[in-house]
Design goal:
This protein has 948 residues and is α+β, with helices and mostly antiparallel strands. It is 23% helix and 39% strand. Strand 57 and strand 58 form a beta hairpin.
Length: 948
Amino acid sequence: MVKAYLRYEPAAAFGVIVSVDSNITYDSSGKHLLVPALENVGVWHVRQGVCTKTLATTSNSSRAGPSLAVTSIASSTSSLVASGYADGSIRIWDSEKGTCETTLNGHKGAVTALRYNDVGSLLASGSKDNDVILWDVVGETGLFRLRGHRDQVTDLVFLDSGKKLVSSSKDKFLRVWDLETQHCMQIISGHHSEIWSIDVDSEERFLVTGSADLELRFFTVKHELVDYRSVSVVGGTEIVNNGDASSQDKWQVLKHFGEIQRQSKDRVATVRFNKSGNLLACQVAGKTVEVFRVLDNAEAKRKAKRRLHRKKEKKAAKGTVEETENKDHSHGTEEDGNNPVVTVPDVFKILQTIRAGKKICSISFCPTAPKNSLASLALSLNNNLLEFYSIESTSNTKTLAIDLQGHRSDVRSLTLSADNTLLMSTSHNSVKIWNPSTGSCLRTIDSGYGLCGLIVPNNKYAFVGTKSGTIEIIDIGSGTCIEVVEAHGGSVQWIAAIPNEDGFVTGSADHDVKFWEYHVKQKTGQDSKPLKLSNVRTTKMNDDVLAVALSPDAKYIAVALLDCTVKVFFLDSLKFFLSLYGHKLPVLCMDISSDGDLLVTGSADKNLKIWGLDFGDCHKSIFAHSDSVTAVQFVRNTHYLFSVGKDRLVKYWDVDKFELLLTLEGHHADIWCLAISNRGDFIVTGSHDRSIRRWDRTEEPFFIEEEKEKRLEEMFESDLDNAFESRHAPKEELPEEGAVALAGKKTQETITATDSIIEALDMAEEELERLAQHEEEKTRVNVAEFQPDIRMLGLSPSDYVLRTVSSVNTNDLEQTLLALPFSDALKLLSYLKDWTLNPDKVELVCRVATVLLQIHHHQLISTPAARPVLTVLKDILYARVKECKDTLGFNLAAMDHIKQLMAMKSDALFRDAKEKLQEIRSQQSKRLEAREETKAEKRKKKKQKKIN
């Protein structure tokens, strides 16, 4: 009989507040912060400091590997959120519902930049494959792919109400794309290093770029008008260019404005304007954020005038005699007193510098400004920490830090309590107590660098062995460290409990193995019962001790040493019993089975070895992981084994058959530790990515042979993915300047969808032939009633094909139709006429017709059989599309009419508050200018009086 095993599935991941691979961003309301958490996106309520939702990918455990790490996040003006992943896919989420609306596949490399347009209807994405793709968010499909960059795209920005797109790249160039004509209209050079970030203010006056250069570079933006004139804002003054401008000026959307020196020498990581555009934050790849004040037009002019005035005073003080030359020079290139030329330092003024404790990964301005400050800025740090700063005119204050829900560095050890209700994790500076079933952090205790731990059976106390050689006694109830015992001269590498006794064994790098006893001691005059720890035995080894294991019957103790051997001793007398040789590198971990028969060792040589404890013979050596094995543990009362390694994998073994049962993927970095519950119903793993993951045993049985077949299929599919890229074909040449291509990419899903359409077309053709044959027989003789094909699900042939085509993901439709042979494409075109009768399918019919016409244009015009179909479609499609446009136009007009009726009924006017605010600001600036002019005139009169 074939043996069945129970499957383990990923159940929960906790301990990660923010991961370092992606940016953070606020949602449109400013109440929530969207944060990357490895493969998920966490939605944090800023005021409460809690994670209210997790936007998690629901995929099979085999695909939930490191390839799905979030690499970019963007939020729209609505509740939609886009997240890009390391495998090139983009998911659109509804942040209020917490559901994934659609998945967009187009990039072949990790998504590095995402940006919505102002309305939220378009999404631009850049990737490590050097391409920029524009997506229709409403239609859930890719519009086109823009090629031209020679290196990774780093940032994107929409201009001119979404009609233009600016992209930056590591190739040191900026490109301005016209999205209506889909071509590159301007290439901007001048940067001496890779451009890492760009941004534009809300009024689109200035575009700023950040690179590894020592200065920030600024550009002014030229806006197109209806009457073929252009307006550019230079130094706060609008310059109108007439239609007879040179062709060079016509395509010059961005004009170089100037540079401003940065204080830090580190490269720029992010530059961002706040929503109102009066602040600019420049985050470097270090611990600082420089915040600049952006002055409005009137203030910038006043500052330029003051600068001129000071310059003239200095010249007058020096007593320069070359007045005529200076006048000519200032008139030609510089400025005169009444109309000074505004420079970058006149507009951008350094306000303050925010310094964080650790390296900053990303920043985000809150879209809603607080009452008592200029802005609120969120920072994500590389030590799994979120910080929030309030920026005021003279200083900045840290308002909140989210840090309790995770460790600041690697999770180095995990220990479950005897009843599996508590989980203790250790890190470089803290010990955390978790509820393993919910993933909530119960206690955080400051400690040394904990390498190993043990929870006392009554769940009141815990021991932590540290890198400095101490044993810390933790009171779990109060969350305090009650005593630090100087235990070893080197780091405490391992703690192992002695079965059926109140004691444990520690192994250290100082070559010692020490035996300890603990007991609760009642002190006179005190109600508390502190734990008393005492060393009862010490034995010396000839090398560093890396791991210790005790047999459940307390008969043997096994000690792994740095010399790659494992020494086995009798526990009671500490007499030598066995020496186990075989590993080529030191043994990092080991465990003894519950019956005491087997000892398993995991080594830095990537192998697992199963030893018999009766004679010390090696039963089997298994090449288990592609990197060092860091932890192994038996499931209690079985010979099933879990192992983890630096290759990020968790593996489940049957060591009686020496077979691999399951491979569990999910961690994004080296896995350091492992803990298994007493009943084996769940396991927990801790990793360098700071996450703790729980894997639950399900009731789903599986068989070894089936798992082997699955692994072979996955290998075949991965080879198929490589085949899509044509490994043996010559490498693709560099794309032309500003080349345009299809947005999607060929995937396993598109190939499956193509096969299903071809199958549906063949079935429909057979059904039509049967129908025609039945009608012909019906005229000759009486025949039985026609029996439709049961596979058609009771639908007509045309409806069945329509159902198949409609089931294809809108984003995959182009690539699916691209793979159709011409004969099947011709069959599909013949069905479009019937489908246009359904008003809901007009858009789908138009898309199918357009794509097939583009792909098979030459064959269609040279095939006589296709002409009648195309002629009919030409007449029908135009009429149907016009009907849809008329309906939409009528509905929009009706909505405008309702808006007008509501405005007439209400006392308040339907007026944009922003326009009103701009009017007030312009009036204020005019008043200030008038005051400045009057003051200047008074000064002149006073000077003249003095001279006279």
